[in-house]
Specification:
By secondary structure, the chain is α/β, with parallel strands linked by helices. Helix content is 20%, strand content 20%. One of its GO terms (molecular function) is feruloyl esterase activity.
Amino acid sequence: MSTTTAPRPARSARPTPTGRAPGRAPARPARRRRTAALALAAAALTGVLIGAVAGAAVPAAAAPAPVLPDAATTPSGSTTHPGRSAGCGTAPDQEPGTSVLRTLTSGGRERTVQLHLPDGYRADRAWPVVLVYHGRGNTGAGTEAFSGLDALPAIVAYGNGVVGTGDGERQAWEGAPYSAPGVDDVAYTTDLLDTLEDELCVDTRRVYATGKSNGAGFTAILACELSDRITAIAPVAAALYGTGHPTCEPARPVPVIEFHGTADATIPYGGDTDRGLPAVGDWVGGWAERNDCRPRPRVEQTAHDVTTTRWRGCRAGAEVTHVAVLGGGHTWPGEDSYSGGGYATHSIEAHEVMWEFLRDERLPLRFVAGATEQATTNHGSAS
């Protein structure tokens, strides 16, 4: 990648919270009972949470902040670590703790990405990557400003859509009805990952995707089409437009943590059939079914305005979690600056909660070139 702007110092950081293997999953036997139970659980989830917004009292509960380790305290890397990318040992051309707008070529187009290196980045340690996709009309830099993701001990790549793909001069990602045809954002993601892995020391088993609204919906497409490279996803206020169900056939179960406000007026929590938007509870429950999770999720009140629903007992340990902000709008939980219309909770911070979920997820070794099943999972990797 080439640099198009001078390095920009990262905004004042908050304390850091303490070849591909192509293929599809084999056909699975019918699971009518499981499907029915999951559908009932999803419908109940949507109804209960919307009911809570309509007037039911919400009990207060203390929510301990997730503890996220500082990458600087993690032992340095091992040259035998499975998943270390080709860029390990190569000095980066930007300073740790800075964000730089960079360019790459994908599909014959010049594309850009806002690339953030974490404080303490070293080229002898394999670092996780967080890919971030903005909402329609926003930018990578705009999402960086409100999301808090720079605080993570990870390489954070804030993608930029192509101008003019989201109505007029606005940028968007493929998969939405307003997205312009002819732009392959899945290929852009593949090219971006290839470039990052060539130029930086990346842990290829720990590549996560998040985003907001249209960008969050696009992460569901990535989970379906690039499950051999994307380890897990964390969509926020996702515009799902039918993505991920029912035609999604990932090569492996993909863990998901999803955030949504129950009073989101832009992407309604209860869905919008006229726009092809599913009810959020139905979509999350469908993903739990896809991952063969136990049909009865556990629902907890994790803050006075936050309910967390967890599906466990999933195939390959690919759990599914739904974080509902009661009365929340089209916003990023814990936003640092304006992220969308409606109420934004500060009871939780999305970047902290998602990292607690994502950080221990690893791509199975069969998708890592040269790896063996005897290899360990953590040597040489930043936490």
